[in-house]
Fold:
Amino acid sequence: MKGWIFGNEKQKYWTQKIFRSSHKFQNPLHQNYKHVKTLEACLDIDASSVFSLIVFVGDSTFKTQMPENVTKGGGYIQFIKSKTELLLSEAQVSNVLERINSGRLAPSIKTNIQHVKHVKEIIREKESSRACPKCGGTMVLREAKKGSNQGKQFYGCSSFPKCRGVLTFAFEGANRDVQT
Structure:
C-alpha cells in the first residue's frame, strides 16, 4: 500500500489517503483475527502460541498510532525477534507441519480458479447484505418515532447515535434509497 494510513484496533475500516483520494479497507487486525482462529482450530494449538502480525509493504505512512503487531517494511523482523520464549516442543512443531502439509491443496490452475471463485462468492454475499453507507456497520430495521415519517420503517446504523447512517426508507410499500 502507499499513501497515508489511518486506523486503530477497534475501527471496522481503516482509511488509505493518497493526495485527495480516500479509500476504506477492512481493518487488517480484524481480518487476521479470523486467520489466527482458523489456524488455532486446524492445527489444534493454544491461542497463546500464535501471534498476529500485519506488515504493510510499499510506500505508506502511518498517521495514527499503530499497535506493536502492525508494522511496515522490515519492521516484522524486530517483532519476530522480540518473541524469544519457547512455546512448542519439537513434537508439536512436527505435528503442526504434518497437519499443514496434509491439508494443503496441490498448487494448480484448477485450485487457483476455485479459490478466486470462492472469494468472489464471499464478496457477492457481503455486498448483498445491508451495510451502513457512513461507517460500514450493520444496518437494522427501525421505526421512526417522530416527525413526518412517524411510524414508518427504515434501515438505520446499529451504531446510532454515534453514527446516523440511513440506508432505506419504506414509504407506503415503495422503497426509496436515502443515503445520509
In short: Helices lie at 28-43, 75-82, 90-103, 109-128. The longest helix spans residues 109-128. Residues 15 and 24 are 4 Å apart (CA to CA). Residues 170-180 have pLDDT under 50 and may be disordered.
